[in-house]
DNA sequence: AATGAATGAGAATTCATTCAT
DNA sequence: TATGAATGAATTCTCATTCAT
């Protein structure tokens, strides 16, 4: 008897929440969590200040809402792990491509969320547990499997996975910091990174590919 | 009439500035730029609120001060580029080790500075131009030289350099986000990363080392 | 065209108003006029926020509604003035008993109304004219009559009546302030007060009674 | 080392606090706790809004400050209990006169404090314990002593003391509610009340006095 | 009539910055 | 120069009231 689950109402509510989260993502990304005001978000969302509080208990809860959406989309993507049956190099390139395809379109979300996450203990813990740990776990399993079949040489899986995650996160961060080279050439990155990580810098090891 | 170049005064002033910047770094890292108050900084520095404004025009200028110190230390380190005469793998490992030795002790500084830099247009530009661009430039030259002597296989220097910079920045960020694995094993990182970047994941290409 | 005097409608309307006033009395008494929200009242009444505005023009009008009910019940009780034909002491005891029987069950109403009445000029005037003045008037007439027949010694009727009214109001207030003694022993009060007011504290004047 | 007890600073601080409490008392009495804004208080005190927060942590703390002052003045007055050596009637008249002399000049304070106290659980408890209980205790002891020496007839001390306290509180409340008779004739009250409470209403028991 | 989401005015509170001492 | 009280602009959040459904 707590709520009558009116399906139409639920739809309207979901739409309103999306409207607010979209506006908040944009504003947080532009000005940062603290410089962004509820008024800013309301203006961009085209609603009154107070309305935001019908859907979120506080400004921080709005950020949490963004984090949850990110979490959900992350979870969804985790399932799309490339098939391991194929040639290893292709697998690896596919993995990178998929990760980046997830990361780059969410660049705005990261810009909105990351700075505050870095600075807010509670959010940090949440983000780490809900976004990073699952990503690491899935990736570690996958790498372990590849490593077991001798497809890649024996490595320190935990650190390697973190290195690759860090590589992508770092490149995204550099782009957010204004690096034009990355911004303009990010489509080339999967290939370059595959080459770098798979072949290494060591001379005389080029592999033909594509 | 612009300045009275009293050498003693200058010393005292420099000391006070350092005192304030140290306190601010600590407080910014702990609470973030916005949650940190001038009062917090003053308390940690052991001075009165108002005194800060004798040395810095605003709270933002204090952050800029931290950024400048970071810039200076970066510049200083740039000159310590490893000698390129040696074995390539050692050169590369040395390079990574040195970069990380610069980065990790400054983790607190990064935590203090990065979130706000990501969010503040002006700081972003400054940080990019004064910290990142010089780092990239030096590294690109160095890699170009190595590449020219055939020490490493022909690569896309610009992207590779950014990849490596991003890798380190990303790992640091992951650590700041609370990853225990990285925090506990960062001393192993130079070796693991050298192996990863130099040898690649490709099987059957291990090189003996160390 | 001002009203459609549909008797059924009137009944329904009266019932709704009662429902709302009951809820409001409870909530105002618990949290005070300002801390109580229209949402609180609506929830307790089991209706929607907006519905309250079909029956009352504003939150303040709801309080006025409570005041009017109090006024009506006061008026009703005024007619029940004890018969003056009896023994004076009995008359007096009966009077006190009746006043307290009116006051105590309405303790919640007083707690709901009094604090705001003390603070709101308009309500104050209303309350004074509609509740207190009639009470004083009736009581003064009655005391005057008793005094004229020599039943009580010559006194300052106006002040005495106010003293007795104040005594009851004050005791109620002390109870509202949390005094346990009054709360637990209020049934003894009529007797104690009669003894106090009728016999006085002066020694050697006890009257046998009951 | 928490604070340097600079006597001049303490004086200035105390003066400021008094300035704020005086202003707040006036404004709370006029408009009630909730309708009174920090801006109102600041304006009356002739200072900026923010300054209030240098001396009080919140609006509620300001009210608590008023309560504490009332408490202190109450405590001070408790010591001035009339000497019991005298004629009983005089003692009683003196007691009432003194109580009223304490109460009436503080009418504004009561109007500021009472409505909110009646409505705020925490304040209620505080007020009861710090203001009422001490008053009751002192008065009970005094009455007990008088009763023991046969000066007054045997009574229920606890209820009588509460009745008298309620009588005064009630009369004050009636005055706050706008009763002109009480306001204009309150100087006569001690005598009238003494007569009422000491002699009682019972006819033929007048005592000559004064 | 009933509903409850939307509105936006209003209030408490914070805090960077100023400035008299 | 150092101090820290005073300032007041700016912000978050609440809630009485409105109104489309």
Characteristics of this structure?
homotetramer, Arc Repressor Mutant, subunit A, 0% strand, DNA-binding, elongated, 210 residues, 2 domains, mainly alpha
Q: What are the SSEs and their pairings?
A:
The structure is a homotetramer of 210-residue chains.
Chain A: H1 7-31, H2 38-45, H3 49-55, H4 59-78, H5 88-103, H6 107-117, H7 121-148, H8 157-176, H9 180-185, H10 189-199
Helix pairs in contact in A: 1-2, 1-4, 1-6, 2-3, 4-7, 5-10, 7-8
The structure holds a DNA duplex (21 and 21 nucleotides).
- What portion of residues of chain A belong to β-strands? under 5%
Q: Major sheet of chain A: size, sense and barrel closure?
A: none
- DSSP helical segment count of chain A: 10
Oligomer: homotetramer
Mean pLDDT of chain A: 88
Secondary-structure element pattern of chain A, one letter each: HHHHHHHHHH
Protein model, in words:
Four copies of one chain form a homotetramer. The first copy, chain A, folds into two domains: 1-56, Arc Repressor Mutant, subunit A (Orthogonal Bundle); 68-199. In chain A, 72% of the residues lie in helices and 0% in strands. Chain A contains ten helices and no strands. Chain A has helices at residues 7-31, 38-45, 49-55, 59-78, 88-103, 107-117, 121-148, 157-176, 180-185, 189-199. In chain A, α1 (7-31) packs across α2, α1 (7-31) packs across α4 (59-78) and α2 (38-45) packs across α3 (49-55). Chains in contact: A-B, C-D. Chains C and D meet through α5, α6, α7, α8 and α9 of C and α1, α6, α7, α8 and α9 of D.
């Amino acid at each position: 008897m707590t709520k009558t689950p009116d399906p139409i109402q639920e739809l309207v509510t979901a739409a309103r929440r999306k409207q607010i989260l979209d506006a908040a993502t944009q504003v947080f990304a532009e000005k940062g969590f603290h410089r962004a005001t509820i008024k800013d978000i309301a203006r961009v969302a085209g609603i009154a200040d107070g309305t935001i509080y019908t859907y979120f208990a506080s400004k921080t809860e709005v950020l949490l809402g963004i984090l949850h959406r990110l979490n959900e989309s992350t979870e969804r993507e985790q399932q799309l792990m490339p098939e391991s049956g194929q040639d290893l190099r292709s697998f690896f390139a596919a993995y990178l491509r998929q990760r980046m395809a997830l990361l780059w379109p969410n660049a705005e979300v990261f810009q909105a969320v990351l700075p505050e996450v870095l600075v807010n203990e509670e959010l940090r813990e949440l983000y780490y547990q809900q976004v990073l740990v699952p990503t690491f776990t899935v990736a570690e399993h996958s790498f372990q499997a590849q490593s077991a079949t001798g497809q890649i040489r024996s490595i320190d899986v935990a650190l390697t996975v973190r290195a690759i995650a860090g590589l992508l996160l770092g490149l995204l961060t550099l782009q957010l910091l204004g690096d034009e080279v990355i911004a303009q050439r990010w489509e080339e990155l999967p290939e370059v990174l595959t080459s770098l990580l798979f072949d290494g810098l060591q001379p005389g090891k080029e592999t033909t590919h594509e």
